Predict the 3D structure of the following.
Amino acid sequence: MCRSMTPRPMMQNTISPQYFALSNDEIANVFEQIADLLEINEENYYRIRAYREAAQTIRSLERSITKILKFEGRAGLEKLPHIGQHLSLSIEELLQTGELSLLKQLLTEVSPEDVFKLIPGIGDVLAHRVQQELGIETLEELELAAHTGQLDAVPGFGSGRTQLVRDALETILNRSSRQRIRVSRWREIHAAYAMPSIALILDIDTEYRRLAAAGQLPMIAPRRFNPTGKRWLPVMHTERDGWWFSALYSNTARAHELGKTHDWVVIYYDRGDHQGQCTVVTETRGDRRGQRVVRG
C-alpha cells in the first residue's frame, strides 16, 4: 500500500547581510553631525530635532543597534522611540555601506566659515578671519590650530577665547567620553594614515574639471554668495582605490575675492574612519607656475 508523502520544503541558502562594525555612539555621532549641518542650513526645526532625538535614543540603548537590525530588521528599529521609517532606512544605509549619502550631500553644501560659527566664541568676523589667515577648513584642523598656538596668533583670539574653542571642539568632535581622543593621539593617527596619494587627488581634480566643463555633472545652488539661488556649482562623487571622493569648486569668500571660483577645487576624501579634505589650485609663482598643486 502506497502512502502519499507530503514533499518536504526545499531548504534555501540565505546569506545574512554584512554590516559595518559601528557602535551605537558612532551612529549617534553621525546623526548629531547631520543635525548640526541642517541647523547651519536653517532647515526645518522639526527635522533637526528628529535627528537629535534619534541620536539620544541610539546612544542610550543597552543593545547594539546593529544586532537589532540584524535580528529584527527595520521593524525592530522602528519600535524604538524617535526612530521612524525614514530614520530606520538611514541606519540601514549607514550600517550596510559605512556612510550616509545625506551627510555627504550636506558636507558639500556647507562652507567652512559656517561650520566654524557653530563654535561658541566664533562669530561671522572671526570665522572669516580664521579661514582666511590660517587656510583651515575643517573642525579637526581648527582643533589642531587651537592646541598648537596658531589660533592665538589670529587677531581677536586670546588665551580665554582659545580655551573656550578647545573645550567646545572636544565636546563636538568627541561626543562620547569613552571615545575621546586627545590631540596627540589625533596627530599620531593623521601622520600614520596620511591621505590619498597626490597623483590620485590630481586625477580626481582633472576628471572633475573635465566633466564640469562638459556640463556632465549635477549642479547645486550654494547658500553663500548666491543671492539669486542659481544652480551653478557642479558636484562630483566618485570612488577610486577604496577611497570615496566628493569634488566641487571652492565657494569661499577668498575664492570669490580672487576670482578663483572656477579654479580652486575642494576635494573631500573618505575611507572608513579616515576623512579629510584638500584644495587643488593652479600655482601662480615659482618653478611650478601654471601647474596644478595640492594644498591642505
Notes: The first strand starts at residue 219 and ends at 220. The first helix runs from residue 24 to 40. The radius of gyration is 23 Å. The chain has three domains: 24-108, 111-190, 195-295.
